[in-house]
Amino acid sequence: MHAVLVILIVSLMVFLLMRLLPGDPILMYVTSGNLQSISKEQIEQLRHELGMDRPLFVQYFDWLWHAVQGDLGKSILYRYDVLQEIGKRLPVTLYLGLLSFIIGCMIGPFLGVVSAVRRGKWVDSLVTMLANFGITAPPFWLGAVLIYVFGLYLGLLPVYGYTSPLHDLWKNLQQSVMPIFVLATFPIASAARQTRSSVIEVMRQDYIRTAWAKGLSERVIIIRHVLKNALMPVVTLQGMLLRNIIGGSVVVETVFAIPGMGKLVVDGMLSQDYTVVQGVILVVGVTVVISNLVVDVLYGWLDPRIQYE
User: Fold this and answer.
1) CA–CA separation, 215 vs 52, rounded Å?
2) Beta bridge partners of residue 74, listed in sequence order
3) DSSP string, 146-203
4) Within a domain: 228
5) pLDDT tens for residues 193-236?
6) Range of the domain at 49
7) 280 & 172 share domain
8) Residue 31 lies in a domain
9) Are both 178 and 29 inside the same structural domain?
10) What pLDDT sits at residue 177?
11) Domains in the chain: how many in total?
12) Is there a domain that residue 114 lies in?
């Protein structure tokens, strides 16, 4: 019930905010054709055909009713079906986002455990420094630096575009290295810091001291006793990072000119294409809600004491 309420609030906010922006998408649509040859009556007729002359609450509930039925409308400016366009772009965003998420889930906690176990050593200092850099580095700045160094200066990687791995795997890998690195930097850094803090806190517990006193090896203590108890806050963070990766695709796809969901919503906002922006935000909102539900399920698996009614 709460998930549905969140989605409704998000849809209402984006619906109203888009209409508070200055400008008129109808005039932009007409200007892309020939404004001089179209009369005011024809403009009003076009506005009526698109349903933009009705009260806002009528427009909102009409759009919401069709969205529930799987119809997100058509683009005002280009007249393509929004749901079909999202279907074309979503695999690109999921491909880059999920790869960077998986990399973050693997490398981040590993670095955090190594840093905690070797606390005070040079490895700990190096991981901490890199984690602080990864958290503070803006994605657009990091992307621009990578483009200059590896694309323009060294000429090793293409600086823009996307090719499906089913069409050309090698070219896809070349084009995906920098975007995935930018998307994975923050998840790796934040997961490393969170894991380090959690592992250090767990290793101070009495049952860990008892395990050491029994003569158990370091590997057994870390894997069997420390990790499972230290992963709770890390799992929470990963659930938050999953939606950050989807949101971060807006910046990355714009910087690297990748035709994904992020680029679609940016183009829609710049052209005030209401239906496009509303459709993309609705899909992102549903994705965020699902990610939260997955995190809640993982809670119960990691800690049997947690029960859901």
Assistant:
1) 74
2) 81
3) HIIIIIIIS--S-SS----TTT-HHHHHHHHHHHHHHHHHHHHHHHHHHHHHHHHHHH
4) yes
5) 888 888 888 877 777 777 777 777 777 777 777 777 777 777 77
6) 2-68
7) yes
8) yes
9) no
10) 93
11) 2
12) yes
Whole-angstrom distance, CA of residue 235 vs CA of residue 114? 18
Amino acid type, 200: I
Q: In one letter, which amino acid is 218?
A: E
What residues pair up with 81 in beta bridges, in sequence order? 74
For the cut 80, the answer to whether the pLDDT of residue 66 exceeds it is yes
**100 in the same domain as 62:** no
Are residues 43 and 128 located together in one domain of the fold? no
**Residue pair 18/282 in contact by the 8 Å Cβ criterion:** no
Residue 74: strand, helix, or coil: strand
Q: Is residue 78 part of a domain?
A: no
Please tell me whether the overall predicted TM-score, pTM, comes out greater than 0.70 for this model: yes
Q: Are residues 52 and 103 in the same domain?
A: no
pLDDT in tens, 11-34: 888 888 877 777 666 666 666 555
- pLDDT band for position 147 (50/70/90)? very high
